[in-house]
Amino acid sequence: MDYSSIPCSDWNENHVSSWLQVIGIKPEHIQKLEKEEVTGPVLLHVVTKSYLKELGLGGGQIQLLLSKRDELLQPDKSKTKKKPCFDGEQREEAKQEIVSSSDVISHEQNLSTSDILESTVCLPQSRFRKFNDNDGHFSYIKHAILPPETGIDNLITPCHEYKSLEIACKLEPRKLKIKFASEVIRFACACMNMRANGTIHFGVMDKTKTSYKHGEIIGIPIEDKEDFEDALDYIENCFPTQHSDARKCIKPPKLIPVIDKDSQSQNWIVEVDVVPMVNVVRGKLYGARIPKFNEKANKVEYEQKAYYQRVGPNTPRVTEDELVSFIQALKDLDQKREWEENNQNQIQTHFKEDLGRKLLVLLTHGKKYMDKTLRYIIVSNRFDEENLQNIKFLAHMNIFSVFDYDPDSKLSGLCHNYQEHHAVNLHFLRDYDHRESTADLIKKLQLYDRTSWIFCNGRNDYIGSECPCDEKTWIKNKKKLLKRAISVICNEILPKRSFVVLFILTSDVEQPLVDTFHEFYAEMSGHEDIFIISESRENYKKWSSLAQVSCSMDVLEQISIVGMPMSHVDATIQSIQLTSVQATRRLPVSNNGVCFLKPVDEDSMLSLDVVRVDQCDETNVNVMEQEQIHKIEQYFYQGGKIDWMNLWLADRNQCGEVIKRDAYAEINKILEDLERTDSLKRSIENINIYHQPGSGGSTVARQILWNWRTKMRCAVVKQSYQAATVCEHAVKLWNYEEVDKNACLPVLLLLEDCNVDYQDDIRRELSNAVTTMKISSSKLCFIILCCKRSLDPERMCKTLPLRTVGVTHKLSPAEKKLFSKKAESLKLKFEAEFILTLVLMSEEFEQSYVTDCVKNLLKEIDHSSLQTHLIKFVALLNSHIENSYLSVSHCEAFLGLGIHLDKLDKMAKRPESTWMDEVRHQTFENSLSEQARFFFIQLKSSETHISSVRIIHHLIAKEILKQLSSYQSQSEIAMSLLKDKVLFDHRFGRDDFRKFVRDLFIKRTKKSKGDPKNSWFSPLIEHVSETEDLEKAIDLLTVACTRFDEDAFVAQQLARLLYENKRFEEAEIWAKRAKSRPPQHTYILDTLGQVYKKWFYDKYEDINKKNAIHPVDVTDIIDTALKGITAFRESEKFSQAVYVNNSYFGEVDIGCRLLDLLPFVDVFATKEGKRKLMDYLLADYIPEEVQKPWQMFHGLLKGLKNSIRNALERICEDLARFQNYSSEEEEELDEGEPDKVNNPRKWLLRKSSVYAKFFSIDIQEDEAVDTKTVSPFMRHMKIFQLGGWNVTTILYLLSDNKKHRAGAKLEEIISLYPTDLKKDLDQTELINFIFCQIALSCASPGSGKLLSIEILQDLSKRFYSEKRTALPETAYFLLSLLFWPEDSMGKMPSSTRSDICTKAINQLHRYSEVKSTASGKGRIFTHFLLGKAQGLNKIVHKTTIEKFCMGTLSERRLKWQGGEVWMNPDVVRLLKRVTGYTENGNLFVRVSDQRNIRVIPLFSASLPNSNENVTFYLGFSLHGVVAFDIKVAE
Fold first, then answer.
1. Spatial separation of the C-alpha atoms in residues 1354 and 1318, rounded to whole Å
2. 870 φ/ψ angles, rounded to the nearest 5 degrees
3. Is the separation of the CB atoms in 1493 and 1477 below 8 Å?
4. Residue 1483, number of CB atoms within 10 A of its CB
5. What is the dihedral of CA 765, 771, 772, 774, to 10 degrees?
6. What is the full DSSP assignment across 976-1036?
7. 375, 676, 603: which is closest to 502 by C-alpha?
8. d(CA 1313, CA 958)
9. Labelling 1011: which of 849, 1168, 1234, 1316 has CA 20 to 30 A away?
């Protein structure tokens, strides 16, 4: 079978057999291997010497097979090329060019492939046991290779001889003893005569003709260890007159275990040391009688006495010819031995390893100081009390996680000690056995915010199920969890070479600790970035003996600090830490002093980055090099985010001052005004900064925090935490070490680029907390400084003009002078290209300047190079996606540097090769083209967790794309990006990368977020479809959908793009595909309905152009419309927490348009035809003309009236219950028209009118309605048309600014009702009538159409008398309004009225629990508030209160949220404060001795923690009654 054209990894058993036949393996062995199903992958990765031996292959056949197999493993350049990503061979050539152009390495570049890539069958090298040392922990690894047997180099360095005992070990004990004794006596006699130390090893392969290698460690099985000790009893017979000397020189046998991971049986190496001390052997010649076993006589016999010597690695006899000269030489040997013995003692005394330098090099990757760029993983066991005093250095290391094997660590060990300095998260190994995404795991375990303390063997103090266990149980139950945890950390969370693993051995070493080393060694592909500290040499000996299974003894020594006291380790590491040990942390306090902030308390506020009074003061400037200061400054002026270190260094004149823009002074003024007590109105204030990207807005915000940190408590919010957590930590910061809560300094919180919902949630949580703590509402507690990017800052300033500052690229004359001066001074320190952002800023990002700048940098750029493609990819992301970046790890993979850098890693030898980090950095830098080095800024890992790059400014990114468009359009760049397998398959930073690329295709711009317009598609898709070609946009979304695993949201965008361009058939296919994929989101399901709706509208326009329309002509259009209604109904069934399901709107839209179409069909076009149409839609009648053409639609068309009505009612219901503002996600996904999104109640009123008008064809426009003669149906339709058919539409009439107009319309509606209200009105009509009365009393209190509250109460009797009838919730809402006690204090209210009101509100609570799927109480819609007046006038509509709130929409909303509205004198005069009480965290109002009503608190009306009497304003909603402005009663 031809195997030569097939890769070995694809061979089957037949291919392998053919190959074995060609290389000369015997047929019987080939049959065995074929029977064992040895395929290509098995041959390459599984077949070993031991495996072949078990199958019965001889040594020669094994050697032949393995040597030929090794030839297969040699890398073939033509076969190992990576699959091209966009340019095929050009990409590979480009990669080779990049690697070869990297001139960082000199001699290393000439290394061959075989030097770099170790053979997979290469046996590890071993080292000898320390001579004449009783190390009980030493062991050997099976199949490791010892150095060749040696002769005598000097007399102290031992010579070595190997004996396999491969056959002899199977002999009976007596014969084994004789064999062992004969070899030892011969070797010892030679060593004593040569005055040389020596060791003879049994169980190590000597020069035998087997498949084993010379020096290979095999070991021998031993049944009785005493056999070997007893064997030396032959000494007396072998040295008859000199046995005393022999006993002194020949040391007892040492039995050393052989570790074999693949076998359960135990083998041993037996070693005998010979130490001929000069004071024993001086002047003596030793002869020995070698014992032999006589098989015939079955006894021991002794050879004649002979003298032995060492000649090279052999032990021959001294011949008679040599004897005289040999004896004469003994005197010189004695003198030499004596001199070497004395000299050895001196060498041992004087030689000391520089452990201090070695420690620092290992810890810092060769830097001169330790900073936060590296993360550390600590692996430890039990610490004693003394060692716990010497680990202060750990408190200032950037520790990512700790693998702790001390079950008492939390109580009294390392964890307990560390928690005095920092807060930690306590975990077990099982916590890392995750099924969620890596990003979710990081968030859940808070991995980058707090040290993860992993108790690997349980905790004694833990009452859960994690108890400590013995070694065997641990291996059985927890070893696999350890493997998983280490794999996750090394392969999914931390990039290679971004962390160091430090083993601290402070007590007896056990197997699980060693297993941890093996796992890290395997996952990190070697010993790089692992090192060990062991004060105890005994602990280290045991450790190294067990650890050598993974790593040779020589390498272990290179990465180990042994024998250095922990106190010295502590002092040495502290000397190079940038953070001093005596770090004090201070916060300002209200008495103008400062208080100490404990580090552990600061850590507990992990959702905040606290800016302390002494921020950065702990930094040791003497340790920090000038070059590092230089880099910090350059990073900022190149476009990087400002760091507290920048401002700290500037304050100390270590680097240049940071320019303050004019916006800084504006915000400073706002803060100074807020500080003055007389200007305060609320306890929580908002200040907004809207800034154009790259204009310095975030710098201004951080300068504000920096310079106010001594007057207020300042912090940056980490938005990965929920608002409730942020609030909890902010409150803790606010009252930390303060005595009087009413005197605390305000907390200034910085929120950067957060969405509005998150900002509102934080404000609401803080407001609730302030109320709970009984703080005065006029006491300033928190200031939220919100810094957001915006392309139109000036427009955004108009929303809250008094509290908003805009920062643009436009400079004031003063600013321009400062920036120009700064640019000139920096050009003296840095190359102009590396401070490009500042230079552009000084030119106000003038478009012509940006264009020229990019044009100059793009001159002579190689458009085919990988570096240019990388620039394009990053520019594309940065142009369209805020805060996007590409990890350096992705860049290295894309540029083909991964393999090259791995080779360098293998060449680096610890500790001398500390240049590795710099080499990696330089290799990446050198791999970039000149243009890329100018355009890219490498983001700090602290900002993105992993080192990343982005274009220095988004305007530069846009200009790059613009200027390169003639060579490659944006669609082509995006397509290349989507198809790049290397980037998408790369592990580190994968989640962020995929999110950024996905956002390119689905993220739309919104004016509410500061964008210049609301886009219908993502900016990229809009650009491609408008300026390039629609087909390219469609192709992009098609490929994107495939790349993101048939992503439902991408498929939805493609469907939308297609239907917007009237390609409805394709849109239908993609909408169905989106619908079939998870998640089953209501907006995705709604898209299919939207496709049919647009398709229907398009057909509607075409059909309208016809003069005569026959039933058969509209069959297709009706089919499309009904498909749309069906699709919308399916979406409506899907329960999801969104505000008003969009599909109800879609169903009404299609239904109303379809009703509009039907009268144009010729059979219904006449006046008589219209009556026929009504009969068709409302009765069983089917006109003959439509009987057959519409046979599939009759049922759906006849149900049209009710289906539209039901959809309208559902919209009404949601609008009545909830506020009509959307979350950012809903804005992103919504496909509704502006009217529906921004003013759904207005849309509802309009559609209701269209619907009712259609079914009111009997009533002419100018005809007055006579309630006595008109049918109830027509009367109902007229009421419907006017908006009086539902509570929502009735109350919406009150939003008319001209109340008399609203009153007139309500009077008209009321006049349509019959005289006998009790008899002639059904339940719904009565509810609507009473609500019209309530609304009329709000719009026109003096109207003659008004009935008294008593009459309305009487009318509503049927609602509470019909006990078994299920009532709509609007009925209970009505009862709560009409029967609310006039005075809940003082006079005892009527028990009946109290009962009605209480039961009604309780029923509303039950409805609310079932129906409230929207997110949070903040969306409850309050219709009315309780006023001080009597009767109907006590019911005050919300619009009455809103007219007292002046300002923009955002300002009015803020007044409601902040409680400012309740301080308005007009509101205080109008509304009534109700008295209630709190109990067990709930709020109640007492309406009688037996009746209490639960009240829902809203906005800042959170409850006090204790049980208190309170007062509040009462609101009425469909959720029940709600409370505003809760205050503890005086």
1. 10
2. -65, -45
3. no
4. 24
5. 150
6. HHHH-HHHHH--TTHHHHHHHHHHHHHPPP-GGGT-SS--SS-HHHHHIIIII-HHHHHHH
7. 375
8. 65
9. 849
pLDDT at 1386 over 50: no
Q: How far is C-alpha 866 from the geometric centre of its chain's CA atoms?
A: 29
pTM for the full model?
0.70
Of the candidates 964, 965, 935, the one whose C-alpha atom is nearest the C-alpha of residue 950 is: 935
Provide the 10 A C-beta neighbour count for residue 779.
16
Whole-angstrom distance, CA of residue 1515 vs CA of residue 324: 122
Q: Quick check: bond before 1079 cis, omega within 30?
A: yes
Crossing angle of helices 1200-1217 and 1167-1178, rounded to 10°: 70
Those residues whose C-beta lies under 8 Å from the C-beta of residue 807, and which sit 6 or more positions away, are: 661, 663, 689, 690, 691, 692, 695, 696, 697, 700, 793
Closest C-alpha to 1399, from 1473, 1494, 1481, 1318: 1494
- pLDDT 10s digits, 62-99: 888 888 887 777 654 333 333 334 444 445 444 444 44
Q: Which residue has the tokens 């390893």?
A: 353
C-alpha span between 1173 and 1182 (Å, rounded)? 9
Record the tokens describing residue 1262, joined without a space. 């100018």
CA distances, 844 to each of 641, 788, 1061 (Å): 19, 20, 40
- Terminal C-alpha separation, the chain: 99
Distances (CA, A) of 876 to 954, 1023, 1359: 10, 12, 64
Q: What pLDDT does residue 380 have?
A: 93
Q: What is the 3-state secondary structure (H, E, C) of 873-907?
A: HHHHHHHHCCCCCEEHHHHHHHCCHHHHHHHHHHH
Could you tell me where the beta strands, DSSP code E, fall in 1345-1499?
1422-1426, 1435-1437, 1473-1479, 1482-1486, 1492-1497
The Cα 1235–Cα 717 span in angstroms is 36
Per DSSP, the three-state class of 474 is helix
Q: Is the model's pLDDT at 1260 over the cut of 60?
A: no
Q: Can you list the positions of beta strands (E) in 606-758?
A: 608-611, 684-691, 713-717, 747-752
Burial 598-612 (b: 16+ CB within 10 A, else e): ebebbbebbbbbbbb
927-938 as b/e: b if 16+ CB within 10 A: bbbebbebbbbb
| 8 Å CB contact between 852 and 872 | no
Q: Tell me the β-bridge partners of 1479.
A: 1482
What is the per-residue pLDDT across 787-829, written as a single tens digit (0 to 9) for each? 988 877 887 777 777 788 998 888 888 888 888 888 888 877 7
Taking CA atoms, 1231 is separated from 158, 486, 1060, 1108, 1146, in Å, by 85, 46, 11, 34, 10
Contact 729, 608 (CB under 8 A): yes
- Residue 44's contacts (CB-CB under 8 Å, 6 or more residues apart) are 8, 9, 69, 72, 73, 120
Residue 1249: closest CA among 1202, 1209, 1283, 1211 = 1283
The answer to whether 218 touches 237, Cβ cutoff 8 Å, is no
Q: Sort 120 into a burial class: Cβ within 10 Å, 0-12 / 13-18 / 19+.
A: exposed
**Closest to 512 measured CA to CA, from 489, 533, 481:** 481
Distance of CA 1520 to the CA centre of its chain: 40
Q: Going along 713-859, which residue ranges are E strands?
A: 713-717, 747-752, 782-789, 804-807
* Contact (Cβ atoms closer than 8 angstroms) between residue 874 and residue 950: yes
409 contacts 424 by C-beta, under 8 angstroms = no
Please give the C-alpha separations between residue 259 and each of 134, 513, 559, in angstroms, as whole numbers: 19, 17, 22
Which H helix or E strand runs over 487?
helix 479-488
Tens digits of per-residue pLDDT, 149-205?
988 888 999 999 999 888 888 888 888 999 999 999 999 999 999 999 999 999 999
301 to each of 237, 286, 414, how far by Cα in Å? Answer: 10, 20, 64
Contact 936, 925 (CB under 8 A): no
- Cα angle 1029-1032-1034, degrees, rounded to a multiple of 5: 115
